[in-house]
Predict the 3D structure of the following.
Amino acid sequence: MKRTILISLLFVACSSPAQTYMNIQKADGTNVEYKVADIDSVWFQDIEECDIENAKAREFLDNTDYSADTAYVESNVLNYWKTSKGDRPAPVTIKWEGTAAKLLMSTVADFSEQTDAQRMAAPAEIAVTESPQEIYNLVPGVKYYYKVLDANSNVIKAGCVRPVGPLRMIKISSFTNVRDMGGWNIVGGGHMAYGRLYRGAKISSSISTDAKNVFLKDLNISLDLDLRGSKDSEKEEKYIIKEADYIRYPVIKNLGRGEGDTQELYQQAIRTVIQYLSQGKNVYFHCAGGADRTGTLAFLIEALVGVTESDMSKDYELTTFDSSNKRARNFRATEDETHILYETITHLRKFGDPKKESIQELAVKWATTRHSDTVDPLTMDEINLLRQHLVVK
């Protein structure tokens, strides 16, 4: 579904010499007040809003609320998953008439040179010919300006698109179950930041150049954080993207059924994430399929920054949409089979009173507990730093 917002100038009023405000009327008749400094050169053109969320995943998220189910007996995800490419986002589609030579995109209205932060995964230039052009991996809520040029650099069409929908699944050829951790709601207000932390499946040595460019250029990944244990069959596939750092924390089991130094490895992984984020660097973390060990680390990070418990469950269950790893929050652990989320919840509840303390508070207690003599626990300063880099108010 695509929506177009038409904006028209109503009036300008000055509240002080330092600040000017403007009322903008949308097509539905409602008014929105903006600072003039925040309004750019698209005042009088259409801003096309494009849903980039997978339709089935969107239905699952819209129709699922686990807030009241702290016993983890309910799950809704198997009612919505698809059998193929269910983890693929929808594209932003740009159409034009005539023969084009290239498409320019920018998050800056005057198309000046952008920093990595401003670029926000906008491809600077795409070679095109016939309409339409599908574009993936744009960031929800960001305005992307574009120009379609012919062979003589004449502008065939110019406009502005804004991807909508908080879930940001990432499309990379031959990869499944990759997504930005941004967009999830925070208890007390705000959401997780986009474009800093990504979760997914292993990076194979057969990765294509195009796929590698998505990691390095679109997502700006600086660290490949590998959670695979030494017993994994893919253990030799490491340090594939030479331009990024590679660190491996070999987790054997999940948190609740851990062996050896499992808890310390998760603490070290979180500390490493904090260190890279503090340097302005983006992180991609994974295990083999991006379901269990990856899901555990994602759950712990989300709990520490204050994501709602319902949303943490939904993020865990979204792995189901890649069709190869069904994961439901109400799966119960048996003697022969590990079900990660329930065991993680059960383990975290050992660190306090689950009747009085939230899962977020219990996760903080787990993170700040010393589990061995060899690894220092996380400090509250580190946890607050993690929140500073990942929470957008």
